[in-house]
Amino acid sequence: MEPTDLNSNRTxxxxxxxxxxxxxxxxxxxxxxxxxLDRTHPELQALTCASRAAKLEVDTKSLIVCMRGxxxxxxxxxxxxxxxxxxxxxxxxxxxxxxxxxxxxxLVALVREAGIKPFRYVAEDPAKYFAILxxxxxxxxxxxxxxxxxxxxxxGTVLNLGTKKHKAxxxxxxxxxxxxxxxxxxxxxxxxxxxxxxxxxxxxxITDEFIIxxxxxxxxxxxxGNAAVHGKFASVFAKLMxxxxxxxxxxxxxxxxxxxxxxxxxxxxxxxxxxxxxxxHKIGLNGVDNGALRFxxxxxxxxxxxxxxxxxxxxxxxxxxxxxxxxxxxxxxxxLVGGRVGLAYSSVSVLKVAxxxxxxYSLLRQQFGPPKQPExxxxxxxxQQHKLMPMLASTYAFHFATLHLVETYSEMKKSHDEQLxxxxxxxxxxxxxxxxxxxxxxxxxxxxxxxxxGYAAVNRFGSLRNDHDIFQTFExxxxxxxxxxxxxxLKQYKEKFRGGTLAVTWNYLRESMNTYLSQPNPVTARWxxxxxxxxxxxxLDAFRYRTSRxxxxxxxxLNKHSKTLGSFGAWNRCLNHLLTLAESHIESVIxxxxxxxxxxxxxxxxxxxxxxxxDLYALDRIWNDIGTYRNVDYVAPNKAKAIHKxxxxxxxxxxxxxxxLVDAFDLPDYVTRAPIAMKSEAYSQxxxxxxx
Length: 692
Ligand SMILES: Cc1cc2nc3c(=O)[nH]c(=O)nc-3n(C[C@H](O)[C@H](O)[C@H](O)COP(=O)(O)OP(=O)(O)OC[C@H]3O[C@@H](n4cnc5c(N)ncnc54)[C@H](O)[C@@H]3O)c2cc1C
Hints:
Layout: H1 12-16, H2 18-29, H3 42-47, H4 60-67, H5 72-83, H6 96-113, H7 119-124, H8 126-139, H9 141-161, H10 164-175, E1 181-184, E2 200-204, E3 209-213, E4 221-224, E5 233-243, E6 250-261, E7 274-278, E8 291-295, E9 298-301, E10 311-312, E11 318-319, H11 325-334, H12 338-364, E12 366-367, E13 376-377, H13 382-415, H14 418-449, H15 461-469, H16 478-498, H17 508-517, H18 530-533, H19 536-573, H20 575-600, H21 604-624, H22 626-631, H23 637-656, H24 658-663, H25 680-689
Parallel strand pairs: 1-5, 2-5
Antiparallel strand pairs: 2-3, 3-9, 4-8, 5-6, 7-8, 10-11, 12-13
Helix pairs in contact: 2-25, 4-21, 5-8, 6-9, 8-9, 8-12, 9-10, 12-13, 12-14, 13-14, 13-20, 13-21, 13-23, 14-15, 14-16, 14-20, 16-20, 17-19, 19-20, 19-21, 20-21, 21-23
Flavin-adenine dinucleotide binds at residues 149, 183-186, 191-192, 223-225, 282, 285, 290, 470, 473-474, 477, 479-480.
């Protein structure tokens, strides 16, 4: 239905019922077809580059095919299940305790009634596991995290750090939720610095047991998901202590994981020696029962050591295939990267939901307009496009990058190829940090872009924002993770000068380092034609040049400062530089993946849409960092201006197909169920919600 002038079809009835008039007026804002831009009016022409913009025809169905992951069927099963069970849907208003119970009921129903059993996919088919996680997280993010704690964290430690005997004993109970469990790593005094944890597991050769102890309050396990209410077991990370015959009495073998029963399987009573407290009401994710655990001489059988990377024999002798504490620690944490992969992937899903709600609303919402003309869609304001169109382009870029991460992770799980392990480690750290930070910022932008209606809880930005916020911190704090990426880049940089091989993801450095070491080309620095600026080679070269330059300069600075400050001090002196380097590298990886996906897209109309999105992503990023490029004359002043103009123009073109682009995310109504993102019939839900 074409929107009409807001005043033209007013009736006497409307006049006598101001409420009905208001609803009618508002419902027009929610009519699904966007008002076409009035190209005849001078103000609107000045507003955009409309005269140059021929609207692309997008075949949404083909684009959906290009975007769709392999496991849509299982996701649909999840949505159908929850759609058919209203009593299992999370209401907008719910108390913490009710939410926790509902979340547990949701998970049990998913596994036992819908027959969706995520655990087997953790090991067998991680891509399918992440697809389930994504769908379940869209139902309620608390449910997604609760599921992640059970299967990826507690179950994942048993599968990845344990051996056959552990799988034989615990697999079924974890799978069917008879053994709900926790992942107990973080302590009150230590979160990011895992090697600093103080909980100890001392071997007692007389009884053939480990004794788990919390030596001081700082070592209380804190924030542990599933601990406050539902958990029966915990995989507890502790320093393994072996008795020695010297004066020290014990030897510290480093951090290991142990299975510790925390509640009685039948009575659910807390077991002796264990103290459990509730971490309380949180900013978000209140369906997850985070708790604190203290251990006082808790005895567990020697078999409960998850012994894949290190074992203790009956006589107390320690064996490991890895030669040092650091190597064992790295191997242990390396097995846990799946959590990061899942968070990066789910974060993109949150971004898709938020962008869809904000863009659909912005297409339908009308405010102001030229004198005596109908009001215009708020997405026709350049400022609104500036907020939302590069975000939409980024969402596409992140979609392909995280899909690639999931595929590489799955390949690594099959092949255990050493180079892939290194690659996935750095890529998952970088993408998790970059994408979750971006999404967190975007959620506030989307809320604001929807004005007052964005603030109504029923329109979802509050829960999305609050539930997602912690993605920046858990499974590795983003600032800490980016440093791991930077450290890896520096390692690769050293390798390059030693003539060694580079990991796949960093291969580009070989070429671009050489380019960096020579001065920017003064001729190409002036090229400003649209063809050149939209050439993937120009875009990738620019991204990679920046990374190489940052890498080269930070290496020099670190070298200089380490002479006076030592390596820790020098690192800290260059920390912001290192973080910029890591982000720059990740942006290069994201762009490279997007370019690859544009090229390989089989349908011409979808390819054209993706190319538009890709160019906007690339030029917007270059423009955001234009100072860096100008400082070294990588782009001349006129070229900088051309980049800016073209980015704005592309933003407008993307606006023209924004409705198609969000439709191609193919999110079921169940997921984007915010009334302001729905068609006019559904709008009545919104008015009913507030009591009309
Ligand atoms: C809702 C929720 C659920 C959780 N679930 C679990 C769970 O199930 N199991 C579990 O074991 N843990 C869990 N955690 C804990 C979580 O993993 C930690 O909070 C996280 O690892 C960060 O540690 P921290 O809180 O000690 O932060 P800190 O490490 O103290 O970080 C605080 C600040 O210091 C900065 N910082 C720290 N180190 C550096 C550095 N080297 N360089 C620069 N800046 C630095 C960080 O960037 C951050 O801004 C959960 C936490 C929450 C809030």
